[in-house]
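FYI - complex with fe (ii) ion, inputs then prediction.
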Amino acid sequence: MTRSTLEAETILKGAAPLTHQKAREIQPFGHLVRMPIALSEQTCKESVENLNQLLADTMTLRDLYKKHHWQIAGPTFYQLHLLFDKHYDEQNDLVDKIAERIQLLGGVSVAMAPDVAETTRIPRAPKGREEAPVQISRLLHAHEIVLKEARTMARRAADGGDDGTNDLLVSDVIRRSELQVGFVAEHVVDVPLTTTV
Ligand SMILES: [Fe+2]
């Protein structure tokens, strides 16, 4: 091996990616760091716990929309296929907002599917396909779980002076969820196909 080849090999070691690195976590789940946002530790702790519950439920609701977007069948296939995907995108946006608020409050956001499955209050959906009215009932039930807890959490956040969390819950989560319920629920109104006058 020539001298210049040896030198090149030594230099290249400095540019090679160091994969499979391991170290202790920098912040364990469930433990808060103090952020300079003029909120008490107790308020931040309560908001983080509540938002993590809501995050797990919002991620589950989001994924339920994508499951139903893929698996929808029947005469309303196309409109529901599009509507479910639109709501998926909107829920995905909420997931990001909730998770980033948790980090901002000094907490650690729940993130991975097994942890979400362990935490969510929304009943597990089957792996197989379901009829459109059943898909819709499942979505409406999930929305109601989210709306109920979000309203309670919003009041708690306001009581603790956490107006930012209250605003996120009311202006984003609750308003968006109510609107989506309106659009989805209209599909299961039992309107007769023909009307006699
Ligand atoms: Fe798609």
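DSSP finds six helices and no strands in the chain. The mean pLDDT is 95.
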